[in-house]
Amino acid sequence: MDGAIRDTRPLARWVIRATWITVALGMFDAIATLAVRQNAGDMITAGSPFVDLSGAVLVVVGFVTAVLAFRWIYLVAQAAYILSGGETIRPGWAVGWYFVPIANLWKPYEAMKQAWQVSENPANWPQIPADYLPAWWGLYLLYSVLSNAGARLASPSYGAADVAAWIDFVSAVVALPLAWLFTRLVRELSDAQSGRRYAEIFA
Predict the structure, then answer these.
(1) Do 80 and 119 meet the contact criterion of CB atoms below 8 Å apart?
(2) Which domain holds residue 41?
(3) How many alpha carbons fall within 13 Å on the CB side of residue 106?
(4) Which of 94, 95, 91 is nearest to 78 (CA)?
(5) Is residue 52 situated within a structural domain?
């Protein structure tokens, strides 16, 4: 790991754009699926080519958004690790914890919180309040639970596509304030670290 803090603002702009595109597509897909279910009776939702296409596009765009977001998370965690003198979660684990069962309920939040605190005050970062980060993470967990529940109930083994459609719609609604808080976090954290970066360069 090099000792340079990178300017994440260009990447942050792409993360924000991709996030809102994903949210818009998610809402569109949820409404389309719900509309099909309400008019389909006992028909299988997946039988609608329109819904299938919107779902496929959402998966692709969502994957691209996740890649961009994880890259951004890595870079801001790397900057925090450098600024703190190696006292925060390593950047690889800031991303890796998202894929570890059970630990992914709090460790990614811990990494982001540390990045936020260090960026605000590297000298006394443990005392910096988390501000709106708990609300962001709470919405993220709620969205994850709803999304997983919707996917499970929509599977043939459960046969509860109508319920799944409503759960997907609720998760799409939850995604709106979640995206707003994430957008704020991405923008503010990138700006704060950019200030630290230039302070180090011209110190």
Answers:
(1) yes
(2) 9-201
(3) 1
(4) 91
(5) yes
What percentage of the chain exceeds 90 in pLDDT?
A: 67
Is 80 a residue whose pLDDT tops 50?
A: yes
Whether 3 is in a domain gets the answer no
pTM for the full model? 0.88
Task: Give the pLDDT confidence score for residue 146 in this predicted structure.
Answer: 96
Of 29-43, 83-97, 127-141, which range is least confident?
29-43
What type of residue sits at position 159? Answer: G
Helix axes 133-154, 107-120, angle to 10 degrees: 150
Closest-CA residue to 170 (of 136, 147, 137): 147
Query: Looking at residue 48, what is its pLDDT?
Result: 60
The number of residues making up the chain comes to 203
The answer to whether residue 2 is domain-embedded is no
Q: Is the dihedral of CA 57, 13, 122, 130 positive or negative?
A: negative
**Within 13 Å, how many C-alpha atoms sit on residue 65's CB side?**
20
Q: What percent of the chain has pLDDT over 70?
A: 85
What is the tally of structural domains in the chain? 1
Residue 168 pLDDT: 92
Each as own residue / partner, the long-range contacts of residues 187-191 (CB below 8 Å, 24 or more positions apart, any chain) are 187/12, 187/16, 189/76, 189/115, 189/116, 189/119, 190/7, 190/8, 190/9, 190/11, 190/12, 190/72, 190/76, 191/9
